Amino acid sequence: MFKGAIHLHSVYSDGDFTLAELREALVADGCSFACMADHAEYFDRLMTREYVDECASLSDDRSRFIPGFEYSCYEGMHVLGLGVAEAAGTQDPQEVIR
Description:
- The protein is α/β, with parallel strands linked by helices.
- 29% of the residues lie in helices and 24% in strands.
- It is built from 3 helices and 6 strands; from the N terminus they run βαββαβββα.
- It has a 3-stranded parallel beta sheet. A 3-stranded mixed beta sheet has the order 3-5-6.
- Strand 1 (4-8), helix 1 (19-28) and strand 2 form a beta-alpha-beta unit.
- The longest helix is centred in the middle third of the chain and has 13 residues, at 45-57.
């Protein structure tokens, strides 16, 4: 069985910890994966690339860091994209999901 965390925010958006700090705490607690969900609206193309690369650099045989975004859509709806590595560029939930 795998132990991990889903829907985490880092200092890339409104979280309190860096990706490295999150990894350290999660590995210490026996977690083997983390699915990130930082707010997409904080990211531009360059920052997205840095984020995805940092998630990859923190992944090894003990733990995987999976990049992802939380997209704010119309009427307060949020769409979670785990393993997604790009911004949607829209608030239309159907377009975000595509």
